[in-house]
Each structure stands twice: as structure tokens, then as C-alpha cells.
Amino acid sequence: MDVVEQIKTTVETNPIVLFMKGTPQFPMCGFSSRTSQVLKAVGAQFHSVNVLENPEIRANLPRYSNWPTFPQLFINGELIGGCDIAVELYEQGELERMVKEMQKA
Questions:
Q1: Which fold, 3-104?
Q2: Is the CB of residue 8 less than 8 Å from the CB of residue 1?
Q3: Which part of the chain is the Glutaredoxin domain (predicted)?
Q4: Scanning 16, 34, 47, 70, which has the fewest C-beta atoms within 10 Å of its C-beta?
Q5: Residue 83, annotated ligand binder?
Q6: Annotated binding residue at 74?
Q7: At a CB cut-off of 8 Å and minimum separation 6, what does 89 contact?
């Protein structure tokens, strides 16, 4: 399976995916840390992919998503954005609504 197919499969089979530097337990950058914190704060069950462990995904994900930076948050197969957007949605109460709606489905 090529790496773009692998990304697509990951995004389509997991309701919430965070492509990040490091892991939620051991984030390797502040933006990844902040994004996983807001997801945890709203009670989201999410799948994380450490792009530092997989240079192929790190190189190809920006082309797949048309988003140049990490972390990248996907909900229901759709790119939500990076840290700034996730934090903004969290502060507006939108992130919690999106997560709860998705978990009901």
C-alpha cells in the first residue's frame, strides 16, 4: 500500500485522527501538545500518528491535505486544520460539539 493510500485509510477508518509530532503522552512540539490537550479536554477518543516516526507520512501528508504544517486534525475524514484552528474551535465550544456529535453517530 503506498503512503497516500495509507494516509487515506487512516483518515477514513478513524473518526478523529491527529497527525502530530510525537505522541499525546510525549508530544515533541508545543503545537502538537496543545492540540492533543484540547482534544483530551473535550473527551475526544482520537487516533494519533507520530509523523516523526514515519518520514513518508510526514513528507506526503501536506500534499494529501493541502495543509503545510503539523499537527493536522481530521474529524470524520475531513481536515479541520492545525493547532490554531483546533484551539479556536475549542475556545468557541465548537470542538466539543463536533466531537460529541460524532460520538453519537
A1: Glutaredoxin (3.40.30)
A2: no
A3: 16-80
A4: 47
A5: yes
A6: no
A7: 80, 95, 98
Given this model, what pLDDT does residue 15 score?
A: 95
Is position 63 annotated in a ligand binding site? no
105 — pLDDT class (breaks 50, 70, 90): low
Q: What is the pTM of this model?
A: 0.95
Q: Which of 8, 2, 31, 23 is nearest to 79 (CA)?
A: 8
Residue pLDDT, tens place only, 63-104: 999 999 999 999 999 999 999 999 999 999 999 999 998 877
Produce one character per residue of 55-65: b if its CB has 16 or more CB atoms within 10 Å, e if not. Answer: eebbebbeebb
- Provide the 10 A C-beta neighbour count for residue 72: 27
